[in-house]
Amino acid sequence: MQDEQAFIKDLLDPKTQNVAFQTLLSSYQKPIYNHVRNIVLNHDDADDVLQNTFVKVFKNLKNFKGESKLFSWVYRIATNEAITFLNAKAKRNGMTSADFQQKQVENLQADSYFEGDEIQLKLQKAIALLPEKQQLVFKMRYFEELKYEELSEILDTSVGALKASYHHAVKKIEEYMLKN
């Protein structure tokens, strides 16, 4: 993608906005889908959240202040949309978010888009037991290989706190994997 400042200018200019937004979609759609899918676990839900994310990005472009990278801003919106989606779905099903996450993991094997084996399924079960923040940090660091600095921008948390969250998550996952 071109220089970010020029690109943002194109996104905000009504004359170039549509072409620039198509560029944004083609550049960010796959990584944002993967990120959302790691959170919501279900393909159809991930598609819904992805669509909501890009609608929200488009509507709020004028509010982007450039205090973070555009990618981090889009990621933050996607993360919030995914969490909001999960919480709403859990509430609709009369469950806590944690119980709903467990149910989602149990349904993974039936998902035709899930390509994992037994170990991958066990890992997903271990992750679902973590507190929400540790889940996010672990998934974004482990599966998406984001740097702590990027996580800090996306989650608006200090690098030190993120390292601690990741460390605690890894320890809990290791314990689960050994016991089960």
UniProtKB/TrEMBL annotation:
Residues 121-173 form the RNA polymerase sigma factor 70 region 4 type domain. The keyword Ion transport does not apply. CDD domains: Sigma70_r4. Keywords: Sigma factor, Transcription, Transcription regulation. InterPro entries: RNA_pol_sigma-70-like (IPR039425), RNA_pol_sigma-70_dom (IPR014284), RNA_pol_sigma70_r2 (IPR007627), RNA_pol_sigma70_r4_t2 (IPR013249), RNA_pol_sigma_r2 (IPR013325), RNA_pol_sigma_r3/r4-like (IPR013324), WH-like_DNA-bd_sf (IPR036388). Pfam families: Sigma70_r2, Sigma70_r4_2. It comes from the Bacteria. Residues 25-90 form the RNA polymerase sigma-70 region domain. Belongs to the sigma-70 factor family. ECF subfamily. This is RNA polymerase sigma factor. It comes from Flavobacterium qiangtangense.
